[in-house]
Write a structure and sequence with these properties.
Chain B has 14 helices and two strands, in the order ααββαααααααααααα. By secondary structure, chain B is mostly helical. The longest helix of chain B is centred in the N-terminal third of the chain and has 38 residues. The radius of gyration of chain B is 27 Å and the shape is globular. Helix content of chain C is 78%, strand content 0%. Classes of the chains: A alpha+beta, B mainly alpha, C mainly alpha.
Amino acid sequence: MALPSAKPQVFAPWNDPEAKPLIRIEGVSKSFGDFHAVNKVDLDIYPGEFFSLLGASGCGKTTLLRMLAGFETPTEGRISIDGVDMTSIPPYERPINMMFQSYALFPHMTVAQNVAFGLKQDRVPKRLIGNKVREVLDLVQMSRFAERKPQQLSGGQRQRVALARCLAKEPKVLLLDEPLAALDKKLREQTQLELVNIQDRVGITFVMVTHDQEEAMTMSARIGVMNAGSIEQIGTPVEIYEYPTTTFVADFIGTANMFDGVVSLEEQNRTVVDCSELETQLTVGHASGVAVGAPVTVMVRPEKMTVQREKPDPRINCVHGVVSDIAYLGDISIYHVRLESGRKVQVALTNLRHTSEQRLTWDDEVYLTWHPANSLVLVQ
Amino acid sequence: MTATTPSSTAPHPRPGPALRAALLRRWGRALVGMPPYAWLLLFFLIPFLIVLKISFSEPQAAIPPYVPLFSWAGDQILQIRLNLGNYGYLFSDELYVAAYLNSLKIAGISTVFCLLIGYPMAYAIARAPKTVRNPLLMLVVLPFWTSFLIRVYAWMGILKNEGLLNSFLLWTGIIHAPLQMLETDFAVYVGIVYSYLPFMILPLYATLEKMDLSLLEAAADLGCRPFRAFLNVTLPLSIPGMVAGSMLVFIPAVGEFVIPDLLGGPDTLMIGKVLWSEFFDNRDWPAASAVAVAMLVLLVAPIMVFQHYQNKTSEAGR
Amino acid sequence: MRNRVIALYTALGLGYAFLYLPIVLLVIYSFNASRLVTVWGGFSTKWYGELAGDEKILNAAWLSLKVAVMNATLSTFLGTLAAVVLVRFRRFPGRTLFTGMITAPLVMPEIITGLAMLLLFVSMELTFGWPEGRSITTIVIAHVTFSLSFVTVIVQSRLAQMDISLEEAAMDLGARPAKVFLVITLPIIAPALLAGWLLSFTLSVDDVVISSFVTGPASTTLPIVIFSKVRLGVSPEVNALASIVVAIVSVGIVIFGIVTQRQERERQRSATAAAEDHAVEDHAAGHPRRGPARM
């Protein structure tokens, strides 16, 4: 594994105060009549980054992407690329290309003509166009389909052509609008890694919009989680999963067990929360940053809990309940445990053995515990 | 562009590409929209205003055969001679009133017959196997592409006293003397239904074909027998198509001229014929204009219904 | 169930018989040697021969053809622009008036349109001295005015179905709006333009009422000639003339049908090709990782 001294080589320009962002979004809003699709978004994206905007449908992620491409003009705020203000430059003059959800391949042109289209607009000499088309079609392994029409291609092949068409123009930024939504599950998983490989090779900055958190986590260097027109949190996949900053993010990414309470003790690396619902105190392994008595939420991921039938000792972060539902997913099982308060908690256990004599079953009485470092205080 | 945009508050030394693009866009749009808009204003809207104007003027034996509505009297005074006589005439003369009523009656009954014949046909096509639907529909549209005049003319040969239908009926022995069919209202009905049937079938087919067939399956599943399912599900859902088709038949049929002229008799009164003879035979342009205005007033409501439907379908097409 | 299907197809069959029988009879009787239209006097083509020598009819047919081509071309141009305005420009001043002026001609009784157009031309001549009398120009203007609405409706529905992201993609790849329209939109909606052109051609060739109002003595179109003959009663020459019109239209439609059928087959063939590739791809996707792409 990487030694700590290797750390500076990790790609993380957002931690470097000297680094210059490629895309700068400052206070951008977009309203359609009374509806605020995007609300005062600030975001910096760095050269070579693979950035994802993640959110449910209608959260404004696509509108933000379309403002980057130039199809929508921000009602407020400014977007710059490489220091140049882009706010109202038309799409055809931006050094940005977009891959559409429907792929938008021109049906009356062959694959090669589709890929050449962008270069022709830039009046690139014919010979160079031919070379470039061959090169990018090779890159996406579509060379042998160059003379086909888009209708003669399968979904996965269309996706590759759409990508090639954008790459041919060597844009500074490539925007991807739900690039894999039209593919079936197996193909999607395979294509995710391929896209990352291609991005790595060409070094173009990718900004992707998706509603699929697995996709965002697999592919991106950083993710911006959007909700109701605003960005709730920006961070690496690890950061947003392990250290969500809001209850929305905690709930949206993966599954979260959340307990409301008030801070009863605040120390440098320990917070104790009085949880009236559980009739117990929960200890969290970091400072909350709020005063004693403030309302907070304690979040624990299902896989961070341990389950046992015997009462543990000492009883730090321990709750008691009965198994009410079991979802067997193959690799793991999710146990729904009903606490004395009636509240249900989810616990995930890895199925390590084929059969387990220890396996829990319905109506088993269990104790759930977790280490303070594996839980989080979220300030409301 | 609002002043709240920070970039626009920053001073611009010269029109930037953004401003240029916005201007280009606006001019481009105007350039695209102007020709058809101007054409329709000049050649569709203004003519109606002129018809309205002339309907208030007096006829005279000159070229053009009407007295100008506005004229300059000797000492530069604008004279307006508004003549309501043409309209008074319309209401006092029984011929006009009867012609209007008869036109509405003939158009109405023809529309009902188009619906009765067209609905089963549209329904059968919409429920036919997918591969044959388009050819079947094509067969409905095809006669529309051949000349309207010729199709009406074809019926003259069939309906005449010594025509094909009479010969056939005499031959079978159903009748013993030829029936007078041409130059009757009956012939006009046949002609209108025949000529306008495709206009009824097309919108009906469009709504019936779009219908989700699982609705009928759901109705059957809930215990509805096929005929009741048709009455309670299919029929109400096809109302928009019925309305559109009926308007497409009714409105032009009210003003129809060729069919009553060729197939109808001298006593088949229709407003289109009256207008034609006022204009071409009597050369009374103001009276013809007044007839046209009155016909338009009659048709305003159906036209609005049609436009409403048309706009709705084109919105839905988005 | 069975009975209902039989009843439906019977209705359909009767309906088609109603639509086609008159035309078929008309064509058959055009080959009748007897002048008495309803008595069969043996097979003959003499009425066609007489037509071929009729200068008046030939001139009228030529004029109609010219008018129809000009009308179809101009209507397709203006109608396409109007469709673009309606589908792509969401809001602009006078939109309601504009849509009204597009839909009204679809149902407006011809006799009203004809009268209105003539009065316009007369007033314009009085005021500006143009157009001088009634001629081919006035006929074309009148025909375009009602044809362009039909073109608009056809093109509008095709345009509304078109994926707007195709235009956005072209713009994104660097094409300016005008170029996007010419290189992307126009080829994609071309079939609708063709259909619109053919429809307005037919409408023009077919029109008798409006033409009667706006025509001058020197310019008589074919329908006007036919109409004046028909008003005098059924005659074998008119039968022959009508049959020729029917024949020309039928040939045109058959060609159009073959062309579209061929396109349809092409489309289906490519669809099956895609499906086969898809199967191959699924197979490949079964392996978790394919070898890395070569640069």
